Amino acid sequence: MNSRRLITIVKKEFIHIIRDKASLGMAIMMPLVFIFLFGYAVNTDVENIKMAIMDMDHTLESRELISKFRNSNYFQPNIYVENIKQLESFMDKGDVGVGMIIPANFSKNMKRCENTQIQLLIDGTDPTIAKTALQSGLLLTQKYSTELQNKNIKKRSLESFSKGTIDIRTRVWYNPNLESTKFTIPGLIGLIMQNITVMLTAFSLVREKEKGTLELLIVTPIRSGELIVGKMIPYIVIGCIDFLIALFFGTFWFNVAIEGNILLLIVLGFGFVICSLAIGMLISTIAQNQAQAMQMTIFFILPSVLLSGFVFPREAMAYPIQLAGNFIPLTYFLKILRGIILKGVGVNYLWKETMLLSVFGMLLLVFASIRFKKKLD
Description:
By secondary structure, the protein is α/β, with parallel strands linked by helices. The protein folds into two domains: about 50-175, abc type-2 transporter like fold (3-Layer(aba) Sandwich); about 180-375, no CATH class. The protein has 16 helices and five strands. The chain has a five-stranded mixed beta sheet, sandwiched between helices. It is elongated, with a radius of gyration of 27 Å. The chain starts with a helix and ends with a helix.
């Protein structure tokens, strides 16, 4: 091996790397960005679970019980409802993960040394959050029951007072057996569709540049918007077919029943396909070559796996990381998938996610068209 030739090749390669500033910058920034994102996002310690309270007793004892849940840092009992329908509505929309019902005779029964029941309703769509809520709710209630006994033990004999305890009844909704498959499969359908569709279009315009056919398109009267939409339509058809395949085998093969309207799910799924294709098209207008397109695609896909709530509950993430996840369309589509497949809810509960996906799709298409138009000038 000739050392002079080897050094010449090494110098040449370093020159190429330095000239490709976009790839060099991304290679340096990716470890830094990922270590901060993943360091704060990868967290299985669930805290601050949103909680709705239906307090029909309104006594000092019921307020003390609520404060025990609030001070535990596991729950945020900040939503109060008047009836069971309001509680069901909050849980169907996913605004709360736990609901607690305190009966009207709660304080009276405790003072009479009689058993009293409270009910804990848990959203089981995410088994990690549900198990934490279940275990923490039982422990907190038992601890408070013991404290009440110790507080009043001087007033009554130990034998009579020990009969009066809090009997907590738990019900897990949407996924009673807390099967991880029912949580994973809907999310996996969304993740697969995002990754496939983004990669399909991320190389679309870049391929035209590298083949030299983009110059032919520049001299034609085709507008940038027409070119973007025209190149997307074939991929929309492919993406929709892929979505139907993933949906069928994901639910049929793994025995995950679709509780809601399957037609609504397909329509919203097609909308997500268009949104994901627009992301890929935007990447394609920015990248100078296929290597850059691949790097940008990975740079987008990896954080979306974690920040969207596909693996780790978003409630366990730091607040800035949760905000970052709000700019990922997959975050909203996962709520749609799990809402329709597991909860059986309709568009009246998912209108916010549907609207945000539509806005993301339109903005991404506009940005891609503007970006491509600038390259034509």
